[in-house]
Amino acid sequence: MPLNISAFPKCYLEEIASGRMSVFEWIEMAKQLDADGLEMYEGFFTSIENGYLDCVGEAIQSASFAMPMLCCSPDFTAPDASKRKREIEREAHMIRITRRLGGPRAVCRILSGQAYPEVSWEQGREWVIEAFHELIPVAIEHDVVLGMENHYKDGFWKYPEFAQKMDRFVNIVDSVFELDHFGVQYDPSNAIVAGDDPLELLRRVAGRVVSMHASDRYLAEGTTLEQLRQTDGTLGYSANLKHGVTGKGLNDYDTIFRILAEHDYRGWVSIEDGMNGLDEMAESLAFLRLMSDRYFS
Predict the structure, then answer these.
(1) Exposed e or buried b per residue across 133-167, where buried means at least 16 C-beta atoms within 10 angstroms of its C-beta
(2) What is the CA radius of gyration of the chain?
């Protein structure tokens, strides 16, 4: 059976989060796209009261979409204990919102936090795992799946992701033994940004992938990956590493989909695309339909 595909408006992220565009305007625009669902981001909401959220949910359903994932950016590595507590409480509320908008088995994204210079790997790891263990019972109660993303950096953060590098990310994932309500939100492009091999990462976590972002990156003319690598082995969001149509960049989507199929993947695939307009987003969706039909029919 082909996979379900959703869309995330990377091109309008700042506009919606800043209020220059409403989430309702985005939902209306998305009607022209061949997508099964619309992924949401916590920064899209002007309120987290039930009445407002129900209006968002009704708009999604009226447009014939599902809401498969709520993209959240909790910061569990903050040196301030009171801030970590607030982040856990907020993520717990985001889990409840995920269930309200997406229903059972929807994915609520979870991150480790920021790579604060004063926080060691050992201390940060302890805080992250403690936070996860507090939130897993909430996810179980609401039948929501926590998806830890191999992430680079939330656009509103000061520092990159604490678990950006593959070894750190896998270490934390492997430390969480809950299988039904916790897994991996896989993003191959973020592995490239981290200076890691997206396929190697996927092979290490394929059995635990619960959702996927399908964006793509390509190098500006005359640029090599080695030229982009920073002294710490990461790439960052260089101006020379650009978003493009999914399937035309650095990611090997044939191998990615083959590995997912070998592990009987049944989750959603969400495009993070459209940096150059909805036409590119539509082209990316068409490519993902082709990949889905090729490997999951």
Answers:
(1) eebbebbbebebbbbbbbbbbbeebebbbbbbbbe
(2) 18
Q: How far apart are the first and last CA of the chain?
A: 5
Q: How far is CA 72 from CA 149, 151, 156, 289, in A?
A: 10, 11, 12, 26
Residue 112: per-residue pLDDT: 98
pTM above 0.90, yes or no: yes
Burial class (CB in 10 A: 0-12, 13-18, 19+), 289: middle
Q: Are 175 and 129 within 8 A, CB to CB?
A: yes
* Domain extents in the chain: 5-296
Which residue is associated with the tokens 């997406």? 102
**pLDDT tens-digit map of 204-261:** 999 999 999 998 887 777 767 676 555 455 556 666 667 788 999 899 999 999 999 9
Exposure on the CB side of residue 54, measured as CA atoms within 13 A: 3
Q: CATH classification of 5-296, choosing from 3.40.50.150, 3.30.1140.32, 3.40.50.920, 3.20.20.150?
A: 3.20.20.150
Could you tell me the two tokens for 178?
């809950």
